[in-house]
Amino acid sequence: MEIRPTTDQDLDVFVDTLHAAFGRFPETPTEGGGVWWAALEMDRSLLAMTADGRPVGTAAAYSFELTLPGEILVPATGVTAVGVLPSHRRKGVLSAMMRQQLTDLRARGEFLSVLLATEAVIYRRFGYGPATYTQRLTVPRRQAALAPSRARGTADAPATGPDPGSVELLRRSECGEILEEVYDRYRRAQPGALSRPHRWWTVGAGQPPVSPAPRYVAVHRDTDGVPDGYASYSTESGTLTVDETIAIDDAGFTALARFLLGHDLVAEVVFDHFPREHPLRWQLADFRAGQVSGDMDWLWVRLLDVPRALTARGWSMDGELVLDVDDPFLGEHGRYLLTVQDGKADCVRTDREPDLSLDVSDLGSVYLGGTAPSTLVRAGHIRAHRPGAAVLADAFFRAERPPHCLHWF
Q: Which CDD domains would you find in this protein's record (predicted)?
C-alpha cells in the first residue's frame, strides 16, 4: 500500500473514494452553488493506494487559525475527509494515513492539529482529545419571555435591559460580507474558535450560514449602525431552528435571542451549537423553559510539539507545573517543566518529579481550558503525583472564558 499526496487533478477520485467509504453519493449543489468539498486543499490531502493503483482511503487537511486563551491566534491544521473503503478496514490503512499525516504536519513546522470526530472511539488513539463541547437549547414559544434584569451593567457584564442597537432581517443572499466580517471579529476573541477563510465564503463550502442554502439572517447593529452580531435561521413545521448565533458581546446576543424568541407562528425555537455555560437560560423568566439536549464533543485537539503549544497560549496565573506526557501513537515520551510568569510561559524538558502524568490526548483535552484536569484525574485518565496537583493544574489551564467552536469542517 502507498500513501501519496494529491494534486488538483485527483479531486474527483478523492471525492468519489470518500463518499464510497461512508456509503453515500455526492449531494447536488444547493441553489447558488456550493458543496462542502469546494474548499479542499488538494496539496494537503492524501490518498491510500493499493499495489495495483486502486484508491482505498482518504485524508485531508485545512489551513485554519485557532484562537487560544489570551486571544492569541495560531495556525492549526483542520483534519477532515478521513475515510477507508469498507473492503479495506481493519487492515491498518487508517493508522498508516494518520501517521503519514502527522509526519507531514511536523515537517511543515506545525504544532497543533484539530478535527471533528465522527466516532469518539477512533481518534483518541491517534493523540486527539475532545476540547470543546456543544449542545442544543430548545425553548417553547409560550415560555420564551425574558426576565427583566435586576443587575446594573458593567463593562464586562452589561445589564439585560432595552438594547440601544437594532436588529434587521435580511436574506442569506443579501448579507454574505456582513456574516464574514462579524464572524471574523467574534472568532478572534473566542477561545476555541476557528477562522473561516475567505475562500470558504466565496465558494459556499460548509454548512449554513457559510453555504448559500436559503436562510433568514437577523443582523444586530450597535448604536453606530455597525453590524456586531447575527443569527442564521429557518422555520419548518412550527420549529424555528437557529444554525448559529454570533455576537461580539452579551447585549447583542440577548437582542438577537429576544428577536428569535418573539417570532410569530412557531411552537418552539431551537438554538443549535449552543455554548454550555451561556447565560441565556438564566435570562428566561421560566428557568425550566430552556431544555438542553444533544450535549456532545465538538473540536478535538492534538499537540504535535508540546513545548511550542504550551508556550503559545496565554496563562492567567504564575507558577510551575511538571507534566509527564506520553504519546504512544508516535512512540514518544517527554517530561516538561512549565513555568509561567506574567502570563507568558516557558516550557523545557526536565528530570524533576512530575506533578501530573498524562497521555497527549488528555493534554489536548485540557489545552483550551474547556476540560478541567481534575475531572480527568477523577476519571482515571490523568495521574496526580501529589496532593493539590490537580487543583493547581485546574488553575493553570483555566481560560478567561469557556472555549467554544461553531465552525464545521
A: NAT_SF
Q: What class has domain 2-110?
A: alpha beta
84 is in an annotated binding site: yes
44 is in an annotated binding site: no
> Is there a catalytic annotation at residue 111?
no
- Catalytic-labelled residue, pool 133, 271, 329, 409: 409
Q: Does 94 appear as a known binding residue?
A: yes
Q: How far apart, in Å, do the first and last CA atoms of the chain sit?
A: 28
pTM of the model: 0.94
Q: Beta 133-140 vs 291-297: how paired, if at all?
A: antiparallel
* Consecutive H or E run containing 274: strand 268-274
Architecture label for domain 310-397: 2-Layer Sandwich (3.30)
| Structural contact between residues 40 and 34, judged by C-beta atoms closer than 8 angstroms | no
| Correct CATH for 133-293 of 1.20.272.10, 3.40.630.30, 3.30.720.120, 2.30.110.10 | 3.40.630.30
The question of whether 409 is a catalytic residue gets the answer: yes
pLDDT digits (tens, 9 = 90+) for 320-374: 999 999 999 999 999 999 999 998 999 999 999 999 999 999 999 999 999 999 9
* Residue 194 assigned as binding residue: no
Point out which residues pair with 97 in neighbouring strands. none
